[in-house]
Amino acid sequence: MRLFLHEVRTEQLLFWRNREAAIFTFLLPILFFLIFGWVYGNSTITKEHIRAAPFLEAGMIGYGVASTAFAGLAITMVIRREGGVLKRIRATPLPPWTYLLAVLVSTFIVFLIEASLIITIGRLLFDVAIPGRPISLLLTLILGATAFAALGLALTSFVRSAEGSSAVVNFVYLPMAIISGTFFTPKGYPPFLRAIADVLPLTYFTKLTRDVMVRHEPIWSNLGTLAVILGWGAFGLAVATRRFRWEPREK
After folding, report:
1. pLDDT, tens digit (0-9, with 9 covering 90-100), for 139-174
2. Residue 9 lies in a domain
3. Residue 201: domain span
4. In a domain? residue 251
5. Domain tally, the chain
6. What pTM did the predictor assign?
């Protein structure tokens, strides 16, 4: 346990010292919330009959999990793999799964801080009520971070180089974030985009987050949504378990 906690602390220090990671994986969802909140926060979403500010708040938490637990984690692990860091870690007394678990816990801590800041900004600047179901919200954040971290680790097996990691990961996660309705409801999308959105895991996590935060429903109120998120997480875990590499792939 002591070794694990030491590794979590090390991962936290490494993350916050990396200014690029802090900006693009941590601050970007917060900046988007500020921009869209100031522009659209007081408007009304007709079909939902709610203010846009709480709708955007929950959506930016969905964007945050894709940015932090999926894209940021995938890019970091590819860079460490191709730089030989993961290979050297396997040669140390530190158990590999202790290292991976510490990385995942550190990623969740970053995401939890990010979500807390978004909720605080929503309350202070846009008059969004504090979520009324904190336990359901915490379970939702844990579920989302776990599922997308598994998918992020799975994605690393398809990225061959450190130089291409950012391009490949952003090619996957940025369209997913837009199509999944993190910024606006996908109900107004053209049919072909709605069809794509209906199979994306972020669509269901964003929906679950809005059900808990905006509609004040418990996390178990929509078992179908939970099942899809769990299914994607299980798929990511299966791929990561089979294909995750500790040694560089570049020749």
Report:
1. 999 999 999 999 999 999 999 888 888 888 989 988
2. yes
3. 2-243
4. no
5. 1
6. 0.91
User: Could you tell me how far CA 106 lies from the centroid of its own chain?
Assistant: 13
CA 14 to chain centre: 19
Q: Round to whole Å and give the CA distance between 78 and 92.
A: 19
Burial class (CB in 10 A: 0-12, 13-18, 19+), 56: buried
Residue 142 in domain: yes
Phi and psi angles of residue 48, each rounded to the nearest 5 degrees, phi first: -95, -20
249 belongs to a structural domain? no
Ranges of H-type helices in 25-133: 28-40, 52-65, 73-82, 85-90, 96-126
- Helix then strand count (H, E) for the chain reads 12, 2
What the block records as the tokens of 222 is: 């929509």
98 neighbors 86 (Cβ within 8 angstroms): no
Chain centroid offset of residue 206 CA: 10
